[in-house]
Amino acid sequence: MNRGQQGMGIELMGKAIIAVLEIGTSNTVALIGEVLEGGRVRISGFGSVKTAGVRKGLITDLNQAQAGVRNALTLAEDMASVSVGEVLLAVSGGHISSTCDEGKAPIRSADGKVTREDIDAVRELAREHQFPGQTILHALPQSYQLDDMDDILNPEGMRGKQLRLGSIFIHGQQERIEDARNLLKGLALDTRDIAFSALAAATAVLTDDQRSHGVLLIDLGGGTTNFVLIHRKVVVAAGSFGVGGDHITNDIAQAFGIRANRAEELKLSDGCAVIDAQRAGQRIEMPLNVIAGPLQSVSVRALHTVIEARMRETLELIRDQLGPHLRQAGSGVVFTGGGAYLPRLNELAERIFGVPAQTGELISDIEGVPRDKVRPAALATVAGLLIRSAQTQSDGLADPVGHFVGKLGRVFRR
User: Fold this and answer.
1) Cβ(204)–Cβ(38) under 8 Å?
2) What does the pLDDT look like over 186-201, one tens digit per residue?
3) CA distance 246 to 275
4) What is the span of the domain harbouring residue 180?
5) Is residue 216 located within the same domain as residue 353?
6) Tens digits of per-residue pLDDT, 62-112?
7) Is the pLDDT of residue 400 over 80?
8) Angle at 189 between CA 365 and CA 410, to 5 degrees
9) φ, ψ for residue 376 (rounded to 5)?
10) Are 227 and 201 in contact (CB under 8 A)?
11) Longest Cα–Cα distance in the chain
C-alpha cells in the first residue's frame, strides 16, 4: 500500500484510523490509533527514533528531521499494518506564545435577549483576529461579557445590548510553522491539523476535576518547556520556552568537563532536581573520556546543585510569566514529557509554585499504551492528539475548530 492511500480518520476494514506525530528535540514519535466506541482509541502502531536536525523545537536541518519522521512513521505503520498519508502534528518552541483579545457584537433581537445566533456571531468575530507574521494554532473562548456584567459562561437567554467574548489565541511564527508543514509535504504527507503540544498533553492527562478547579500543566521536553494553565475548564494562559532537558545535560558537561553523552547518562542515572542530603557526601566514579583536567569522579552534591539551578530557573520563568494567574491553579501542577521523571522534581515545583505537584498519568480513554517502550507522561502529547481526534470523530465533527470546553473541547483549529 503506497503512502497517501490511507489518511487520518479514514475507514480501514470498518475502523477509523488516526495518525499523529511529534517532532521533538530529543525524539520523534509517531502513533497510529483506531477509533473505538464512545470516542475511545486504541494504539495500533508506535514508532520512536532519536531526533536529528531539530534544536529547541525548531527545524535546523530539513533532511535530517525528515529522515527521523520517515523512520518513526515506518515503525508505526509496520506495527499497525497500514500506510498513512495524513497526520496530526504537535508543535512547540520558543516562538509559540498566547495573546488574549475579544470580539464584540450588538444583540439583534428586539427584546434584547441573547440568542444562539448572537453567540455564534460574536464567536466568529473573535476568531477573525489576525496577528502579523503569526499562524493561529488555537482560538479558545474564555468568558462572555454582557454590557457591564462580565465573567459569564453562557449568556444565552440573558438580556442586554452588547455581547463580548474574551478569547485566548495560541500562535506561532508563521515561517516556523511552514517549516514543519513543508517537512511533511516532502514526505508526501498532508498535515491534517497542527496543535500546541502542551494543549494536546493536557487532553491526555488532566481530569475534569483538575480542569474545573484550576491546574498548571508543564510539558518538559528535550529542547523546550511548554505550559498551559486551565481554570474552570478554560485556558487562561499558555506559552513555550526554548529550554529543556538538553540544557541540563549541557550544564553538567560544562561543569565537570565531560562529553555530552556521558553527561546525559549521569543525569539519568544519578540526577535529582534538589540536593539529596543522604547522598550529598558521595562521589560518582567517572569513565576516562574526560575533556579537561584529571577529574575521575564528581560530587553528588555538585551534580544535584547544577541540575537544581537549571530546573529552578526554568520553573521560575513560568511562574513569573503567569504572575497573578498562578492563583487559579488550585489543583496544582502536573508534569508531562520525558523530563517529568526527574527525581524529586515535584518537590522542587511545590517549593516554587506553592501548590501540589505530580507526574501526569494517561487517562482511561486510550488503550494499548506501549509501556514497555516509553513512560506514559513522555507519550502524553501524541496520546492527547489521538484522544481528541477520536472524540471529535465520535461526535460526528468533520472539521475540528479551536474550541475549549468539556474535555478540552474541540482542540484542533483548521
Assistant:
1) no
2) 999 999 899 999 999 9
3) 20
4) 10-94+174-206+363-394
5) yes
6) 999 999 999 999 999 999 999 999 999 999 999 999 999 888 999 999 999
7) no
8) 35
9) -55, -45
10) no
11) 85
Q: Which residue has the cell 569513565?
A: 287
For residues 151 and 165, what is the distance between their CA atoms, to the nearest angstrom? 10
Q: Give yes or no: residues 44 and 85 share one domain.
A: yes
Total Cβ atoms within 10 A of residue 91: 26
Amino acid identity, residue 158? Answer: M
Tell me if 128 is assigned to some domain. Answer: yes
User: DSSP label at 54?
Assistant: E
Question: Quick check: helix, strand or coil at residue 255?
Answer: helix
Give the burial class of 162: count Cβ atoms within 10 A of its Cβ; 0-12 exposed, 13-18 middle, 19 or more buried: middle
Residue type for position 412: F
Contact 44, 75 (CB under 8 A): no
CATH of the domain at 232: 3.30.420.40
DSSP summary character for residue 290: B
Written as one letter, the residue type at 14 is G
Contact 220, 338 (CB under 8 A): yes
Query: Under a CB-based contact definition with an 8 Å cutoff, are residues 25 and 405 in contact?
Result: no
Residue with cell 500500500: 1
Which three cell numbers mark 257? 568537563
For 169, the enclosing helix (H) or strand (E) is: strand 162-173
Residue recorded with cell 529543556 = 244
